[in-house]
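Working notes for the structural subgroup meeting. M.R. asked for a predicted model of this chain before we commit to crystallization trials. I am recording the input and output together here so anyone reviewing the notebook later can reproduce the run.

Input as submitted:
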Amino acid sequence: MSPGPRSPKRRWHRLVIPYAVTLAVMVGSAVAYNWHEPNPTDPAYLSPTSDDDIGGRSLARMLTERGVRIDRQSHTSDALVEAGRSSSANPTTLFIPAPALVHPFYLRMIKFLPASTAVVIVSPDAKLLRLARLPAGVIGTRLAALAAAPACDYAPALRAGTASVLRTRYTGRHELASCYDGGLTVVRRGEAEVTLVGANDPFRNDRIDEHHNAALATELLAGAGRVIWLDLHREEKRPGYVDNPALASQAPAPPSLGPGSPDPDFPLPDGPVAHTISPPEGGQDPIVAGPSNPLWQAFPPWVFAAVALLGLATVLLALARGRRLGGPVHEPLPVTVRATETVQGRGRLYQRARAPGHSATILRDQARHRLRHLLDLPGAASPAAVAEATAAASGWPPDQVTEVLFGGEPADDSALVRVAAGLERLLRDVTRQVPGPGAQEEHRHEGDPR
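Returned structure, recorded in token form:
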């Protein structure tokens, strides 16, 4: 068996398949990248107690060796309270490795921290910077962190050297320093100095030994004798407010939210807690404080990435294994029946039925049909016109042609044989005289499939 010729209509496959393969590779790469990307909700992510690849145990050990005391906190409110108690005699560094899980209201409280507190935030995105009211923005992102030289006069960066922080690029309003082509930017919020780091590579166990990542991480966090490490792995809700003026005035914690709206950065609802909190006049974005989707948060992101990859693999497998409809396939017939056998079989049936008249009628109809075709006569031509044209083409007398083509029914089988022989001779004489393709055709009996 051999397939038939390829249809031109199917040539569009040549154009579609390369783009489909390219799209599949891009989607697969994006899903695999998201799968490989660490999840901040993973308990091991930049945790000072985790030895996993994405943990921060190596950094914590380096800081301890330099005499830095690490205070691990699992709630942002507690971390802010501890950071607010620092002083010039006891400076503190607040380390926030997972800012996406911190409610923006907590990040707005950074402006209440004293000048003796430095804040280091790892890879915040543009939306978080805007909602947190931090004086910085994002000017570009990369798929992976790139090692770059400091190219600035910021002392911690100069002492560290080349590091892998160039992934998210920041720009700040009245920035104090901008290093690594925007991968590290220092701004001031209130009295506190805030350092934005564009990648988590310098702090991870599996990347801290690359380039001078370890030197940069320790230089950023070891400037003070104490590091408050916010080990947060779940998304925090919007903070409430204190309705007791006595508690709201206690020091040395940052000013709490008391009755009313004491600060334009912390708008409060008039009645019960609303789902959407509008910003103050002139603000940019509301903060939606409605309930989150528990089903989405019940699974880590790699689960959805795995499902997407499995779905893509299933589609590709179905396309590869599916049958493609092509042209008809020419197959040999299982049995070949000669035309003469068909004619003989029908003749025996008519003979057994003792119907010579009906058999003669069929033979004459077929002969007249062939003659009309050979002589280019219309299908509605009268018997006289057919007989006249046939006599002129064959040289037979018109009366004899009329008798052969339109004579009476034979009485027996012998008469039927004479009728068939006469028709055969008449057709043979006509085909000898008439030129053209039709004259060369072999006389076909009824039932001839050719």
